[in-house]
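> run fold NADH dehydrogenase (Ubiquinone) 1 alpha subcomplex 4
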Amino acid sequence: MPMNRAFVKKWLPAETLPIFGIVGIAVGGAGYYLYRLSQGPEVVWDRHGDWRPWDKIKHDQNQKLITVNPEFWEKRRQTVKENQRAVDAI
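> ok
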């Protein structure tokens, strides 16, 4: 019991309790914030799949949900086909 009191007196004086409390709350808040960030839709936790899925996208493939300029993508498809034919002819 006397050793316990000495430890508490040396390492946990009354003046340090607010500091430990504030730091504890800050660490808890930062951990919660990082947890929330890790659960967002743009974060993917897939260790077994392809870690570079953007390499599978073709040059003429549109990945957006709404296409503002569909004529551009049609021209892009035609250009890619023409270039592919030119490469195959060589």
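Helices lie at 2-11, 17-38, 70-89.
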